[in-house]
Structure formats: C-alpha cells, structure tokens
Design a protein that fits this description.
By secondary structure, the chain is of the alpha+beta class. Helices cover 31% and strands 27% of the residues.
Length: 144
C-alpha cells in the first residue's frame, strides 16, 4: 500500500509518496497505476503525469531486472510544487549507464527515454548497500 505524506508548510517541501515493491515484472504496472493515482490527487498536469509514469516504468524495470528476488525495491515520488522528484532504491551497487541500442533491439533504450523526459537524472550510492536512481520532472507551479 502506498504511503503518502501531506505538504509540509514549514519548509516548502510538498508531498511525498512511497511504495515498496517485490522485484517482479507485474510490480512495474502496479507502481505506474499507484503513481498516476497519487499525481491525480496532487493535481499534477497531464503531460507531467505521463512523463512521470514513463520514468517510473523505466527506472523500476531496470531496478527489477538487476535486483535479486530476496530484496524489495522502493519507489518515492516527492512533489516540490513546481517539480517532481522520482527516486528508485535497489540493492545493486552498479550505477546505470545509457547505451546505444541497435535499431532492431527490443530493449536498451530506457535510460535514453528517462533522460529525454527528465529535467535532471542521476544516481547515488546508498548505505549500507545499493543505490538510488533519480529523475526530476518539471510540473509548473500549482496551488495545493
């Protein structure tokens, strides 16, 4: 079940939503559905919702592909008012690297899609192990 926190008026950080997922392919569609529902409640514009759903799909697919089945992956979406921060934690320590996929490849373009839709993208190590891969999506200012 997703966990959501309301806006924090004291420090201008808005809403935060997170979800822990089993590393199964079905988890990607579940996360996409829950993300869209949270963003609808937050009144995020439709184009930013679509971009965020795509980024969530790509980042989670990569995390699940490289995660062993004994560990969960975590998805967080943080609404800062004019942008969304999407973060995916997984236990693998290898940082993602975009590759150039051959034209006939069925996969290998996910990080290129993330880079195209995100205003920023990166990865950082996580303690005691693993990494966080993140991306931001601009949403424009909204009234909460």
């Amino acid at each position: 079940m997703p966990v959501s926190t309301p806006p924090d008026e004291a420090n201008a950080t808005a809403q935060r939503w997170e979800l822990w997922l089993k590393p199964l392919p079905k988890s990607v569609s579940d996360a996409r559905r829950h993300t869209r529902a949270a963003l609808a409640v937050w009144q995020v514009p439709g184009d930013a919702v679509d971009t965020t759903a795509l980024i969530v799909s790509e980042l989670l697919t990569n995390a699940i592909r490289h995660c062993d089945s004994r560990h969960l992956v975590q998805l967080r979406v943080i609404d800062n008012g004019d942008s969304l921060l999407i973060e995916v934690d997984d236990p693998d320590t290898t940082h993602p690297r975009p590759v150039i996929a051959p034209p006939d490849a069925e996969n290998g373009r996910g990080l290129l899609l993330v880079r195209a839709g995100a205003s920023a993208f990166g990865a950082r190590g996580r303690q005691p192990f693993g990494k966080t891969v993140w991306a931001t999506v601009e949403t424009g200012e909204r009234a909460w």
